[in-house]
Amino acid sequence: MDGTRNNGSWLCLAGIGLLPLVAIASNTASEPFDSREATIDGVYNTLFSGITACRDVVSSFLSRIEAFSPAINSIISLHPNALTIADDMDARISTGNVTSSLFCIPVLFRIIMIFRGAIILGKTNLHELALEGLTVSSLGGQIINPYDFTRTPGGSSGGTGAAIASSFAVFGTGSDTVNSLRSPAKALISRAGIIPVSYTQDAIGPIARNVKDLAVALTVMASTGFDPLDNTTGLRPPSLFGTGYAKDVIGGSLQGLRFGLLEGMFNWTPSYETTPANDVMNYMISVLQKAGVVIVPITETLYNCTELSSSMDVQASEIRESMDAYLQMHSLNGSSPSPFRRLYSSGKFLAIPNLYSFKLDAIIYPEQKNLAVKIGSPSQIGRNGILAALTGFPVVTVPADFSPPTDHAPIGVPIGMEILGLPWRLSKAGMKGLLSSRIASFRPVTAPPSTDP
After folding, report:
1. What pLDDT digit, counting tens, does each position of 292-347 carry?
2. Looking at 200-204, 232-236, 255-259, which range is the least confident one?
3. Considering its fold, how many domains does the chain have in total?
4. Is pTM, for the whole model, over 0.85?
5. What CA–CA distance (Å, rounded) separates 451 from 68?
6. Per-residue DSSP letter, 265
7. pLDDT digits over 51-83, tens only?
């Protein structure tokens, strides 16, 4: 089980209705702004230099969604007033009334949050009740991996992941109970209102194509501070309130940092599914060593996902109580079975069978022991997210490389590496250094061939 949550009814977004995908298609047209691989800085460079208007930016993303989203099935609905909001922002630009750090930035949501100034394009698909990593639901169907149409995108935030990889928005949101999101968000961002799986393990955060955009989104998402509806937000040290994570992206050095390598998080049995992940991790280890990182092997048998999941995973113990409370929230629209037992047995639910001691700055390991599984597989096997979920430590997943190309995957399947840091020390081990442009540029994110005209 895994976690991306739907904040209330999928047809409601901060009180504004969402329309099916086709409702906005007739209003889109070819625009001069190029949304492919667009970043926050890129949008602002064209917007505030007068090269393009906010409406052009939004129209470009909507046109791209119209053209390519049906093939990967990543978006459930679009905001019917996105272009109207863009027009209002253009009027504000003309009067100098621009006050938000995300002004006119197009975003997609799995978790509904209010981003000051951002333009919400729509809502992404997810796995049914966020309980698996295949990203297939009774409402939205199966999401397709844009790099390989025979594979799942992972999940349960696979809709957001596939959409952002395909440049349908600048960034998006998701949530995580074991492996769905892989973002540095726990205790920084309130989880109130999301569909809960585990009070202990749930976290939410952003998904982006580059580190700076991720840091900007995280800064905004964490700016709300303490939320009485989620007391884990009270764990954040007062000194971190108002932290701007983007400032740590520029510069930094890896020289002398010590990274633990969890050898129990690998599957060394050779196969087409596992060998590419191992090869990519070996490559990344060599890159880090050349940059001055000291790699410390960690061989304790405890540190493997099978052992951790079987002995410490608390989802099964916590989901019933959390879901019962969620289903009784007055803010939910429409009707839904309550308690959770009734929902599960209703027939409408799509069920899938089944640092300190080493003086380390961070721990690294493959995000998954194998490639994302094929569509039709019973489960998303081989994932290593349980360690971060159980400890609550900040974790970031970065693109490491691709598997060898095949007929189904012309440029290969993306393979990720996780970087687990110490609590409240994300800037040192996460954003500053390894996630700086210095390292991120070794393997830039490559657009899926299926969405590159």
Report:
1. 999 999 998 878 887 777 777 777 777 777 778 777 777 777 666 667 777 767 76
2. 200-204
3. 2
4. no
5. 6
6. G
7. 999 999 999 999 999 999 999 999 999 999 999
Closest CA to 102 of 150, 36, 170, 180: 170
For residue 250, being part of any structural domain is answered with: no
Tokens in use for 179? Answer: 């492996």
Shared domain check, 142 and 98 = yes
What does 124-155 look like in DSSP terms, one character per residue? E--SGGG-SSS-EETTTEEPPBTTBTTB---S
Nearest to 207 by CA among 157, 243, 242: 157
| Residue 17, pLDDT score | 32
Per the rule left: phi > 0, alpha: psi between -120 and 50, beta: everything else, 8 is: left
Task: Write down the residue that tokens 């863009």 correspond to.
Answer: 86
Q: Does an H or E element contain 400, and which?
A: strand 395-402
C-alpha 298/C-alpha 284 separation (Å) is 17
Q: What is the CATH number of the domain that holds 117?
A: 3.90.1300.10
Asked whether residue 308 is domain-assigned, the answer is no
The encoded tokens of residue 451 equal 């969405």
* Model confidence at 453: pLDDT above 70: no
Place of tokens 């909001």: 85
Q: Which two tokens stand for residue 223?
A: 């700016």
Torsion, Cα of 154, 155, 160, 166 (10° steps): 0
The pLDDT assigned to 370 comes to 94
Residues 275 and 379 in one domain: yes
Domain that holds residue 379: 258-301+343-451
Does residue 81 belong to any structural domain of this protein?
Answer: yes
Peptide bond into 156 cis (omega under 30): yes
**CA atoms within 13 Å, Cβ hemisphere of 407:** 0
Mean pLDDT for 436-450 is 56
43 with 82, same domain?
Answer: yes
Instruction: Give the phi and the psi of residue 261 in degrees, each rounded to 5.
Output: -110, 110
Residue entry with tokens 């997210």: 385
Query: Domain for residue 215, yes or no?
Result: yes
133 and 270 in one domain?
A: no
One domain, residues 123 and 170: yes
Calpha distance 4→203 (Å, rounded): 9
